[in-house]
Every structure is written in C-alpha cells, then in structure tokens.
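Go through this pair.

…
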Amino acid sequence: MATRKTSLEPLQEKLGYLFKDPALLNLALTHVSAPKPSGGGNYQRLEFLGDRVLGISIAEILYRAFPDASEGELSRRLSELVRRETCAEVAAAWDVGPHVKLGAGEAHAGERRNATILADICEAIIGAVFLDGGYDEARALVERAFGGLMDKPRQTLQDPKSALQEWAQGQGWPSPVYAVVEQSGPDHAPKFRIAVKVKEKQDAYGLGASKRVAEQAAARSLLLREGIWTEDSHGAA
C-alpha cells in the first residue's frame, strides 16, 4: 500500500529538500495576516535571513560560472537574479501558493498569487533551509532554483498597483485614488477595506492586514473586472 503523503511533501519534493524540522517550513509559509496560536510567528524573520543567504549564494554561483566576467557584469547579473520579480517567479515554480497560510481577507483577495508575497516566501524558504540544513543545502537549493535563470530573458511580474497606474496613464486618466472604507480588528491585528477609484469606472475593493496589501487587492480586483488581467494568469479577485 502506498504511503500517504503529508500536506507539505509535494512542496518539499519540488524544493528537492526534506526538512528535518518541518516547523521551519511551516513558518516560512505563514504570512503576517494568518491566524496563529499564542506564540506563533510569521515568515518575516526567515525572509530577512533568506535574503542574505540568497545574495551570497548567487554571488558565489556567478563567480564560479563566469570566470571571465568583470565585477560590473557580475553585479548586474546578481541584481537581476535577486530582484523580487525573479524570487516570485521561483516561488511560483515551486507552486507555494496552495501552501501559503493567509488571513481570510487576504486569501479571498487572491493574495496567494501576489508577487510580493511570493517573493517574500521564496526568501523565507531559503532561510528555513539554511537553518535546517546549513549553508551547503541552502546554496544547493538556490542553484537548483535560480541556476537555469542566469541566461534567461527576464519577464517582469508587475504588482497590481503599478499595473493599474500604467493602465490609467495609458488611457490619459489621472492616477488611481485609494481610500480606506473600513478599518476593524485590534491594533495589533487590524483589517483594512480599501476602495480604488479610476476615472468614471466603478470602485473596486480589497481587504488586507495592512493598507498596502488591501490597496494591492483592490487594484487587482479592478484589473480583473475590466479584463486587463485574467484569472488564469493573475488569480481571482
């Protein structure tokens, strides 16, 4: 009889790394908005660590892969590979979305495909592997995930607010206007409902644990409603 896989086994298979302490991976997947038991945390500290591990890993990989490259070329390649859009692309390839732990508002707003959150989680997972298995394992993960992107033309994963701003400008309209419609919850865990207005278009709304997240959700909702983005490529509003 086949052994039943745990919920995180498919993700670990895509990472090519099996955690000795699965709690680290769970933490790397936990957004600040997620409901947590007393003492629970989120991925922010792991993201901080993973960002540094990613940088040194990519620098070492580039140094060895391009022995004739100048310092300037190596720096440009490094900047391209560690940028948030690239990290989001890697997280999407790992298919982390179904595993991300979010608050109800963020989940409803389609934040599992939010490029900013995906980039954060990519770095958090790298930080988690570093703590769980050491630098060599973290570097190997980075090489597997980023190695094939070294010479690949980059495709920018634009965030919703930037995309909406560009669309409005392309129509010759003023910039989108965002306004807080409702704020609820305690001070340490607020919830925001924000409306975005573009010219004569009907307002669109977004929910989030911060104004930034709610604004992104509202922008995404409007982009999807107007057919500028599609659910297949950017997730449901």
Q: What stands out?
A: Strands lie at 177-184, 191-197, 204-208. The first strand starts at residue 177 and ends at 184. The longest helix spans residues 44-65. Confidence is low (pLDDT under 50) at residues 1-5.
